[in-house]
Q: What sequence folds into this?
């Protein structure tokens, strides 16, 4: 079954939720949400593999050294992202934007999700609420979503 | 990722999602989607090219500042600048 059918088909634009920024970007807190499974050395489940459809998600500490992350998407070639983790977890570029005053600050944690393409139902019912609760609790203003 | 973006927007968090599959982005658009003409695994463009990666990030951030009152909005990233 295609992802589109699993998700209930085309969605009317009128049904698409829309949250405008509540303050200038230079005052916003941003969290990164990546579809790759990035394991940080001290993160829960670090080093564990995942299978396609596994509704795993991991937190990446906000101060994680980008080079220390391991990118392991279950359904894509991770060699490029492991050559430069910023291709999947753009933390260094986001830190540059904060240093330049373009962004206010980064959240204290970022999220790495896995297996979305093969587990849409579980992603929606399982991981999305977890991601929402985490970022709402952190008073995040905005999120950048990066696929792998 | 678009489905996660939708849930975040419902909770009041503004999102912008990079998109690698143009057809999927068009048929199931996130509230704000930036299609990037790169292969899977290269969502920010070229490895070890901070300038090019920052250009992708800046295009995504600019979408967050779009003052329009509703979405979805899907834009194509222009790698040529």
A:
């Amino acid at each position: 079954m295609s992802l589109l059918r699993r998700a209930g088909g085309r969605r009317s634009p009128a049904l698409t939720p829309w949250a405008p920024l509540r303050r200038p970007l230079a005052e916003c807190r941003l969290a990164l949400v990546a579809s790759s499974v990035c394991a940080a050395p001290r993160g829960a489940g670090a080093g564990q593999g995942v299978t396609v459809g596994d509704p795993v998600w991991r937190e990446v500490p906000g101060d994680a050294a980008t080079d220390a992350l391991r990118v392991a998407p279950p359904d894509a070639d991770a060699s490029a992202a492991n050559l430069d983790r910023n291709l999947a977890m753009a933390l260094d570029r986001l830190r540059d934007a904060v240093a330049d005053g373009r962004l206010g600050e980064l959240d204290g944690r970022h999220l790495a999700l896995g297996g979305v393409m093969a587990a849409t139902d579980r992603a929606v019912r399982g991981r999305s609420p977890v991601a929402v609760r985490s970022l709402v609790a952190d008073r995040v203003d905005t999120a950048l979503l990066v696929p792998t | 990722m678009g489905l996660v973006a939708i849930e975040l927007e419902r909770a009041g968090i503004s999102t912008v999602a990079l998109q690698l599959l143009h057809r999927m982005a068009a048929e199931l658009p996130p509230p704000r989607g930036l299609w990037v003409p790169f292969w899977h695994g290269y969502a920010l463009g070229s490895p070890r090219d901070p300038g090019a990666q920052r250009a992708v990030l800046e295009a995504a951030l600019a979408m967050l500042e779009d003052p329009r009152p509703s979405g979805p909005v899907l834009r194509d990233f222009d790698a040529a600048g």
Q: What stands out?
A: The helical segments of chain A are 3-6, 79-83, 91-99, 120-137. Confidence is low (pLDDT under 50) at residues 1-9, 46-52 of chain A.
